[in-house]
Prior knowledge:
This protein has 215 residues and is α/β, with parallel strands linked by helices. It has one domain: Rossmann fold (3-Layer(aba) Sandwich), CATH 3.40.50. It has five helices and eight strands, in the order E-H-E-E-H-E-H-E-E-E-H-E-H. It has a six-stranded mixed beta sheet with strand order 2-3-1-4-5-8, with helices on both faces. A two-stranded antiparallel ribbon has the order 6-7. A hairpin with a 4-residue loop joins strand 6 and strand 7. It is globular. About 4% of the residues have low confidence. InterPro entries: P-loop_NTPase (IPR027417), Small_GTP-bd (IPR005225), Small_GTPase (IPR001806), Small_GTPase_Ras-type (IPR020849).
Amino acid sequence: MAAAGWRDGSGQEKYRLVVVGGGGVGKSALTIQFIQSYFVTDYDPTIEDSYTKQCVIDDRAARLDILDTAGQEEFGAMREQYMRTGEGFLLVFSVTDRGSFEEIYKFQRQILRVKDRDEFPMILIGNKADLDHQRQVRRNVAAGKPIVDNHVTQEEGQQLARQLKVTYMEASAKIRMNVDQAFHELVRVIRQQKAQRSSWKLERTRILLSKNPRG
Length: 215
């Protein structure tokens, strides 16, 4: 596989991004909003589709090849195949669905296992943030205790991101909140980790050469 951010014949950087997450979290809506500036309400959650977008990120032109994956469990084997070629991953859950939030661990571990790495470019996205009013902790007035709530707080998202050592953003495809920022930030993470790995390899080579000087 070509190195992350490899350049095509025109000298333009190219990145393969993969959007993963449980079913119904809005992966397709996020992707289509980013590509076409359009909020799609009806789509088949079993379809995996790919898109391409030319953009400029931090004054550097880039072509993003984006794969929108199906979230259903029966597509797990196919998802693993796509993970092998991905250079960066958006881990998406819905802030209105705690089950999708808890699934993030599974996706993150699967990516690291497939890549055989301790870390890899990823960012965590809490989607459907426009429904924030639905996730306020409700109170049982009589008992004065919180009712079991299916929604995920911003603090919980931030805590998970710290555990996974990734950036966390809340987004909304519906109102186009942090959509471009999410994809652009993932490219920045890819660039940063690539630069760090290159620096580490150069340092390792320098040390080896110093231990084995010519002559």
